[in-house]
Specification:
The complex is a heterodimer.
Chain A (H helix, E strand, L loop, with lengths): L3 E4 L2 E5 L4 E7 L6 E7 L5 E8 L4 E4 L2 E6 L4 E6 L8 E8 L4 E3 L3 E6 L1
Parallel strand pairs in A: 2-11
Antiparallel strand pairs in A: 1-3, 3-8, 4-5, 4-9, 6-7, 7-8, 9-10, 9-11
Chain B lengths: L4 E3 L2 E4 L5 E6 L6 E7 L5 E8 L2 E4 L8 E4 L6 E5 L8 E8 L9 E2 L3 E5 L1
Parallel strand pairs in B: 2-11
Antiparallel strand pairs in B: 1-3, 3-8, 4-5, 4-9, 5-6, 7-8, 9-10, 9-11
The chains are: A mainly beta, B mainly beta.
C-alpha cells in the first residue's frame, strides 16, 4: 500500500524567501507524481506533473524534482509572495488511483 | 472547455438522511474518480468509474455508499443514512482516456455537513 508523507505540515516564511516542500513515498513503482495547490474551501489546482521517467519539471517560479529510487520529491517555490499562501498537496500514481499526502500549509507573511 | 463540475457545492443533511453528490466530468472525459477529504486528513481514493461500469470501488465503505456513472448524465455518489462521520469534502476528478498515469482534473468539491 502506497504511503505518502509531506514534511513539514506547516510553514511560515517572510515574503521573498524561497520555499522548500518535501514529499516522500514508500512504493517507487509510480507512473507519475503531481503537486497540487488547495486554497481554503476550494478545489485542487494542478501545479506540476512529473512523469516517472523525468527528474524535474519547471513552471515559472515553481520547480519540482523527483528521485524515484529514493521515493522523494521536492517542490521549490522561488521568491515567495503572499499569494502563494495555500496548502500544497503531493500525489503519486501507481495506477489510476492517486495517493495523497496530508499536505503542507504555507503562510507567506507580507 | 468547462472544467469538472460538482454540485451542490455545500450540502447539509441531518443524521439518517440521504446525500446525493453529482459530478459532470470535463467534455470528452470518460473516466471519473471520487475522493474524500476528512477534516485534517489527505484525500483518499473512493471509487473509479467509466461509463456504466464501476472499475474499482476498493476505497468505498462497504455499507451506505454507492456510486454510478450512467450512459447519460453526471456521475452520482450516494450516501444513505448519513452519520456525522460522513462530514467531509468529496472531490470528483476526471481523465480522458486510459486512466492509468493520466492527469486527473479535479472539481471544486462538495462539502457535506451532517448535523
Amino acid at each position: 500500500k502506497q504511503e505518502v508523507t509531506q514534511i513539514p505540515a506547516a510553514l511560515s516564511v517572510p515574503e521573498g524567501e524561497n520555499l522548500v516542500l518535501n514529499c516522500s513515498f514508500t512504493d517507487s513503482a509510480i507512473y507519475n507524481l503531481q503537486w497540487f495547490r488547495q486554497d481554503p474551501g476550494k478545489g485542487l489546482t494542478s501545479l506540476l506533473l512529473i512523469q516517472s521517467s523525468q527528474r524535474e519539471q519547471t513552471s515559472g517560479r515553481l520547480n519540482a524534482s523527483l528521485d524515484k529510487s529514493s521515493g522523494r520529491s521536492t517542490l521549490y517555490i522561488a521568491a515567495s509572495q503572499p499569494g502563494d499562501s495555500a496548502t500544497y498537496l503531493c500525489a503519486v500514481s501507481n495506477d489510476y488511483k492517486l495517493s495523497f499526502g496530508a499536505g503542507t500549509t504555507v503562510t507567506v507573511r507580507a | 472547455n468547462a472544467g469538472v463540475m460538482q454540485n451542490p457545492r455545500h450540502l447539509v443533511r441531518r443524521r439518517g438522511q440521504e446525500a446525493r453528490l453529482r459530478c459532470s466530468p470535463m467534455k470528452g472525459h470518460s473516466h471519473v474518480y471520487w475522493y474524500r477529504q476528512l477534516p485534517e486528513e489527505g484525500l483518499k481514493f473512493m471509487v473509479y468509474l467509466q461509463k456504466e461500469n464501476i472499475i474499482d470501488e476498493s476505497g468505498m465503505p462497504k455499507e451506505r455508499f454507492s456510486a454510478e456513472f450512467p450512459k447519460e448524465g453526471p456521475s452520482i455518489l450516494r450516501i444513505q443514512q448519513v452519520v456525522r462521520g460522513d462530514s467531509a469534502a468529496y472531490f470528483c476528478a476526471s481523465s480522458p482516456q486510459t486512466g492509468i498515469g493520466e492527469t486527473q482534473y479535479f472539481g471544486p468539491g462538495t462539502r457535506l455537513l451532517v448535523l
